[in-house]
Design brief:
It is a single chain. The chain has 15 helices and 11 strands. By secondary structure, it is α/β, with parallel strands linked by helices. It has 2 domains: 143 residues, Orthogonal Bundle (DNAb Helicase, Chain A), CATH 1.10.860; 276 residues, P-loop containing nucleotide triphosphate hydrolases (Rossmann fold, 3-Layer(aba) Sandwich), CATH 3.40.50.300. The strands form 2 sheets. A 9-stranded mixed beta sheet has the order 5-4-6-7-3-8-9-10-11, with helices on both faces. Strands 1-2 form a two-stranded antiparallel sheet. A hairpin with a 4-residue loop joins strand 10 and strand 11. Helix 4 packs antiparallel against helix 5. About 1% of the residues have low confidence.
């Protein structure tokens, strides 16, 4: 009931955050008046509470007057609101911890499931008491306040600089096996690490495999050359150049094989707390705790990633497999859709953004692919020469389409890239 500045405190907390039920009822009355652009004072609040039959339950007009006489400065209302919310979170964490302790002493049959449920309860404790029901006018007022601040976006390389992800987004990048999704995830992590603190969670590649790919990318050598063993001056050159390139990057790697979902969520939160901005998880199907109920397991994972991203502001890039392509379709042009995501459902539902990778078959081996590429060129798309001239199709560049099939903000878009799998390099096809 602090005039003027009191309204600024409404969005900082919710009625479910108050310890005393009377305070929650007063808050609801203030939020209703503010949401309808009505004046907020002791008279209007008392009238609103009387209409909703909550005035006497809260202590009557006398209690409202006592609140007015004991409240602090209206200019600090927003800070008071945050304090109320912070204390509510502490209470909910304590309650969740007591529940987790009780369940633990009951000797759960599945330790991984118990750990996952325990972490979910702790994550839920950070939410609001009643999902923060807020009027449209208050939402708009608070949003306008946010828009006055500098916005923090994560720009996706390529797409002519106009594709942005938001802090706290869950982004799913899907692809068929051997179509370059892990390489794309690693390349994105490297590009972003120049400006952001990035972590790459590897469930599939070992430390040696990751190091080989980083050296190949930095030195322009093929992964096969690195893996076969460099000697003498070549080894010194690659070592010095790669370390010079990567020492300036804010990129770390976490060997996640064997990590449970609960451990993953905990690690992501610690990384965010240390100043991390982006985490790449390679890949979803390997990160699942297999309890024998595949659909439930995938849902628990994607829900947990979604909650972790939203609660911490960490942008999570989760790589995901498509269902395996039929052998008869391998040399045909068959662009994927979101339904091709393996275990799709909760994946596409929980994701804020979805990017689908498709590697066009080698035109030297597929007449349909050759005809398709000629059609792109006729349409004015400057597809470069893919044949590297070695006579081995494995050495050719791959033409890859990146299709952003779901975007929370902005229009959907797709474009073509070339991928040099040997040297781990991606290049956008010029218009």
């Amino acid at each position: 009931m602090m005039i003027g500045g009191a309204i600024d405190g409404i969005a900082a907390c919710s009625s479910g955050d108050f310890y005393r039920a009377a305070h929650a009822k007063v808050y609801d009355a203030i939020a209703f008046l503010a949401g309808n652009n009505e004046p907020v004072d002791v008279v209007t609040v008392a009238s609103r509470m009387s209409d909703s039959k909550t005035l006497e339950e809260a202590g009557g007009k006398g209690y409202l007057l006592d609140l007015v006489n004991t409240c602090m400065l209206a200019s600090h209302a927003e800070q008071y609101g945050h304090k109320v919310r912070d204390l509510a979170i502490v209470r909910r964490v304590i309650a969740a911890a007591q529940t987790v302790e009780t369940l633990g002493y009951d000797r759960p049959a599945d330790a991984n499931e118990y750990a996952g449920n325990a972490l979910t309860k702790m994550m839920d404790a950070q939410g609001t008491g009643d999902n923060l029901s807020t009027s449209a006018s208050v939402l708009i007022r608070e949003r306008c306040k946010d828009l006055r601040k500098p916005r923090e976006f994560i720009t996706v390389p390529g797409f002519f600089g106009n594709l942005h992800l938001r802090k706290g987004d869950l982004v799913v990048v899907g692809g068929y096996p051997s179509h370059g999704k892990s390489s794309l995830g690693l390349w994105l992590a490297e590009e972003w690490s120049e400006k952001h603190k990035v972590a790459f969670y590897s469930y599939e590649m070992s430390k040696d495999q990751l190091a080989d790919r980083l050296m190949a990318k930095a030195a322009g050598q093929s992964v096969e050359t690195i893996e076969s063993g460099l000697r003498g001056d070549d080894l010194e050159f690659v070592s010095d150049y790669a370390q010079e390139v990567w020492s300036a990057r804010k990129l770390s790697f976490k060997m996640a094989a064997g990590m449970s979902m609960a451990q993953l969520f905990s690690s992501l939160r610690r990384f965010a707390a240390s100043g991390g901005s982006i985490a790449v998880v390679d890949y979803l199907q390997l990160a699942i705790d297999d309890t024998g109920h595949r659909t439930n397991d995938v849902t628990r994972l994607t829900n947990g990633l979604k909650k972790t991203a939203g609660a911490t502001g960490l942008t999570i890039i989760a790589l995901s497999q498509f269902r395996r392509i039929a052998p008869e379709d391998r040399d045909r042009i068959k662009f994927p859709v979101m339904g091709d995501l393996r275990d799709s459902g909760s994946i596409e539902q929980d994701a804020d953004n979805v990017c689908l990778i498709y590697s066009v078959p080698n035109p030297r081996e597929s007449a349909e692919a050759s005809k398709f590429i000629e059609g792109l060129k006729t349409a004015g798309i400057n597809v470069p020469t893919l044949d590297m001239g070695t006579g081995d199709p494995a050495d050719d560049l791959k033409l890859v389409r990146l299709d952003w099939a779901k975007l929370r903000q902005g229009k959907l878009r797709k474009w073509y890239w070339t991928f040099d799998g040997g040297r781990m390099r991606w290049s956008e096809v010029p218009r």
